[in-house]
Structures
1.
Amino acid sequence: MQDFNFYAPTQVVFGKNSESKVGELVKKYGGTKVLLHFGGQSAIKSGLLAEVEANLKAAGVDFVKLGGVVPNPRVSKVREGIDICKREGIDFLLAVGGGSVIDSCKAISAGRYFEGDVWDLYLKKARATKYMPIGCILTIPAAGSEMSDGSVITNEEGWLKKDYCVNEFRCKFAIMNPERTYSLPAWQTACGVTDIMMHTMERYFSKDDDMEVTDSIAESVLRTAKSQVIKVLANPTDYNSRAQIMWAGSLAHNDLTGCGTSGDWATHNLEHELSGMFDVSHGAGLAALWGSWARYTRNENISRFVRFAVNVMGVEQDFHSAEETAEAGIKAMEAFYHSIGMPTSIKELIGRDITNAEIAEMADKCSNYGQNTVGCLKKLSREDMVNIYKMAR
Ligand code: NZQ
Ligand code: ZN
């Protein structure tokens, strides 16, 4: 078991009507003037935004609104947010939405006091030293940003998608009302569950084989997400199943399922180039790549893939062939992705064949032109990245 440092400071307020606590929570964490940050239409249409505004007013908390965050959130919107915070004397950031809105808030938080351009933080050219506090009302279980230390932003100039991770990005509070996720379309629900499962799998598939408690938690998160999404797709207003998925989403990415493991993260790195370049949903991009990554790397630690096949996918173990069992597990996962409407190839994802030039460009960006590797189970070179993208095409 690897040494670890587990830090999950976010206050989670979970359940029906939990958004009614928002004004109180903002004040508890020192907010007097809030940037109320949200996405396109969903929070307006559902009435959630109006309820939040009324609640903040009743609590005597001033606010300025900034909507229009798009999936794969853009650095231009972040810069707009930073300007507003400076101009208006904002002291607290409140995200109403999913990973994209929360990540945009995190970027604003880092950029607010930083003297240079916020994008330099994502290029790892500098580190910010002072951050604004953030709270969120989560409307889609998926990215896990409500408890994570990460933020992923896309720069429209060059379509680069980069992350920046610091503990200061962990939300002060996360309000989660499963009822607020009833309005999610089936596709978004499935993309979210795929991302939740992948956050667990990125930590699960490692070289380490000796962290039983972490593995058992991870397998439970995976089995839960997998079984509950089927129920939710059949009945979108099934409160209990929506709630299981929502909590699984936070546990999958607050590092609990990574305690003691070195983790991998190659599929995420490879996917960020796909969603950066083709503006596709992150979860769907992960589903399109995972099977190819798994086949490419499984012999690095075949026992993990066997354990996954048996304990998560319910495959019967072939005691004569670990490879056969591992492959049956990968196939079962791909069949599951298809059953919830997810793609398992890039062609299914983008609706056309990807070109060799596009693959080369993604591999260049992902490897920083051959300078970096990604992944831990197997350290992937630029050539490995090209091979996996080609397997997934
Ligand atoms: O913009 P609106 O109209 O709100 O619509 C959103 C958006 O189109 C919609 N939606 C959200 N809640 C809804 C709803 N529609 C109906 N009813 C609701 N209750 O869903 C769409 C997707 O929203 P988005 O926030 O983009 O989804 P998600 O939470 O999956 O976030 C994806 C982003 O997070 C990044 C991804 O790369 C991607 O950019 N990630 C962030 C991570 C982190 N910060 O730790 C880790 C992840 O691995 C991931 O990379
Ligand atoms: Zn993810």
2.
Amino acid sequence: MISKHSLTELFKTHHLPVYRVKQVFHAIYKEGESDYSKMSVLPAAAKILLTEHAPVFCFSVVREVVSSNTDTVKTLFKLKDGKLIEGVLMRFRDGRRSVCVSSQVGCGLKCSFCATGTMGFFRNLTDEEIADQVLYFDQWLKKFHHERVDHVIFMGMGEPMLNYESVMSAIRTLNDPDALGIAARHITVSTSGVIPGIVKLSDEELQINLAVSLHSPDQALRESIMPIAKPYTIPKLMEALHDYVEKTHRRISYEYVMLKNINDSPQTARQLGKLIRGQRCHVNLIPYNETYLGFSNSGKSRIDEFREIVESYGVPVTVRVSLGQDISAACGQLAVEEKRK
Ligand code: SAH
Ligand code: SF4
């Protein structure tokens, strides 16, 4: 949906009263309506204008898969230029309704275990294309479960810190009480460690969360699975994160995908513990969602052992709950499958 500002301008140009903007926003964001012709408060002229110039969604749905117990919905969206992106809705047992959004079409950073990385980079998403993914699932939830989205994570396709302005603009829309009204502290941006983005984020007023995909405490190993680690080395990254915490007083969440026999040894766990102990942080161990890329999931006992070792350094550790395994919910999998077909 176009921004409130653009909608106001559109109404002004066509000599429609601007109080109608609030009515349109209310119908879309609060009532979950996506068809202008059904917005009975609007006069016919406004309905026609909106249908022509301000479609509620800037994409169409190509494919949607719902996991057998309906806790995960994964949707493939087709943008106006034909490019495909995906978004995922997760309905957690604790009540959280979380949407994982894409920030780019593909990703240029080529992490060796990531399906999105194999696609390469096509283009940045606009703020509207990002926010609309959340709006889509918010309407889906209202329709099928009488629920609302209350958490957003930037962990879909792409590197959000390389599309900084659009990501921030989308976050302001998500945050807007007249739009989705999602609290900033319920929004998490995940980065593979793009330092300039981390520096910029520390100066933002918005109280959003930062997740950093570390995946290895060892420079050589990290470089071998994440090429971005070459320019943004671990020592430089740690320095930037130290400054971020000093400035924002917020806690960093380290993402650590558990790859069997690659980064999951007890020795690596000790190295990780030593690297980040004493920081205001926690570690989220991610069970690897197996793709066609040749990496394997570490398995529960290996993950538990790793967790205990890291915790012994006084670092809090959680293990991500894996939802939607029956629908290949890992980042980029659906879009890549569609392209391979
Ligand atoms: N580019 C950003 C955000 C998108 S990737 C980043 O890298 O942080 C979001 C997370 O999903 C990253 O931590 C990434 O390492 C992880 N990921 C990628 N492929 C995965 C897979 N097959 N299984 C589990 N996690 C995966
Ligand atoms: Fe890009 Fe993140 Fe995938 Fe790496 S893990 S290729 S940074 S989307």
3.
Amino acid sequence: MVDILGSILSADFGSLQLEVDKITDASVDGIHLDVMDGNFVPNISFGLPVINKIETDLPLDFHLMIRNPETFVRHLVDEDCRFRRSKFKHSVTLHAEASAEIDDDLEMLRAYGYSPRIAINPATPVTALEKFLPLVDGVLVMSVNPGFAGQKFIEGVLSKVAYIKEQNPKLLVGLDGGVNDKSLPLIAKTECDYLVSASYLFNSNNYAVAVDSLRF
Ligand code: DX5
Ligand code: ZN
């Protein structure tokens, strides 16, 4: 069955902890953290000062939409970082497009107990992933152009899931963007392992029903 990760990008930031508690009660499998820098993507969201305040017993899934992610990665591996070598295996996803030199970052993340992953934008050919696949546990296939919640699912990315599984069936493949009850029938035909949801989940009246409705 697919894992469902709740992206807090569409949460009520005025009650962030309550929102995290509510999606936890709704049985999400992890908390997806969309970190944006206003440079790699045309939006600024939140960073470690906000993330550090979140109390949760769920694994965190850092999605770094930032140019030159090494500074953020350095914070994550710092000996004072509360997420380093924690009892949970937190995942950290870097974008294939963000910097030419992320091999060392991916290796360092693994060495400090994180699950390293790579994300790929809709317009980037899937072959751009090839050199990163031996370094990661998973691939996040973007099904919208990153930057904002609430966009329409881009169907054309779905063939990337099969390509990645052909390269290595053990890689965890996620889909991020426009995941909802309308796109789910198409998504359910793929072999993807996890789905990220922001607006569909947080705009629903009942988070548990919304989470259940995305599982297949
Ligand atoms: C987009 C983010 C997504 C976003 C998904 O840049 O990476 O995680 O929060 O939002 P929805 O589920 O509303 O498309
Ligand atoms: Zn995301």
4.
Amino acid sequence: MGEKVRLSGKEKSELWFEGLVTLVLLLMLNFALFVLLKQMIATNPTLQDTIWSVKNVLTFGQNKAHLWSWRNVFVGAMIVLDLMVLYWRLIRRYRQMQMRHVIAELHYIADGHLDHRVRLAVNTDLQKVINSINALVDSTVNSMEEERKIEQSKDELITNVSHDIRTPLTSIIGYLGLIEDRQYRSTDELLKYTHTAYLKAKQMKVLVEDLFEYTKVRQTTTPLNTSTFNMVAMLEQLAASFELEGEKKGMVFVVSGSPDPLMMNADTEKLGRVFNNLIANALKYGKGGQHIYLNAEKVGSEVVVKVSNDGPQIPNDALNQLFDRFYRVEESRSQETGGTGLGLAIAQSIVTLHGGYIYAESSPALTSFVLHLPLKVGTTLTRTPQVPSNQAE
Ligand code: ATP
Ligand code: MG
């Protein structure tokens, strides 16, 4: 997969030189050994006898004895040995050069070229090191990227919060300024000003509380206070508590579930907050609709809960952004619905804390928020990709 280390001209001549020097040294050593051996054999009759008998054994007494003269054997052995030493020296030097190339590439990465990877094909051990280093660089780059995203989202959060706090604060200061300067004509007008300032201050409080809630549930270490309960009963209770508000808007609740009771394990207080927001949204944004459907079903080891309303359709391109903090569909911004756009972000964090996931589907007939929760907290569910209902049409 990697490319071979390409040696520079200088390195190639270094290798040639190394080979040549080694060869000369070896030949000198061979010659010295040859002279020494010759001397020893000439002056030692016992050694001559031994050589003679070894030769006889090796050639089975045939007349090829001259082939096995000690000189031939010596030269043969030396050629083999020399070649081995030469190969060992050259391969060692070549590996050193490979290492030098790898180190140069590492320096290049360390100098800030984090998108660069070592792509050299080298001997197995060094290859393992290179692979680990590449993996290390990958994970470092990933965590840096993650860090950058977190930093960026923090900046966005601060910008959004300051913007959302400044708007009501400006009107509070404006109205209080009018009162301070006695620029009101009657007690009624004074009361109107204080009332507006009061409403704006309350709006700010909701924002700050939502933010606090959001940052709290965003922390994955937030403990869940789990218990076993009947999800269908929970939905019925929620419907009952919103019934009056629904009646005012001409909406009725339809609760269904299977099996009933549907026993599961989760943090009821936190899930209650999720459903409160989903139902409040259905009431707030479901203008023109007449029904709010709450449905829970057990599917394998999951519980799928749907909160649907037959109000206006959410535009397709907004569906995935709904869960971004501070995101509000354009129409909701202009309306006086007074939300901060944190409700669904909080809902998503709570569902994630439970190991589940949430998404929205919207068609002209029905808008649904679908929660997938594990029957028991401790398992994490992954969403299988699917086409949103209004895309399928
Ligand atoms: P908050 O809940 O923080 O008070 P919010 O209701 O505006 O403010 P979310 O609950 O996060 O914020 O909802 C985000 C946006 O999603 C809403 O502003 C609205 O535009 C859209 N939305 C949510 N639920 C529905 C729904 N049932 N039908 C149509 N639009 C919806
Ligand atoms: Mg909301």
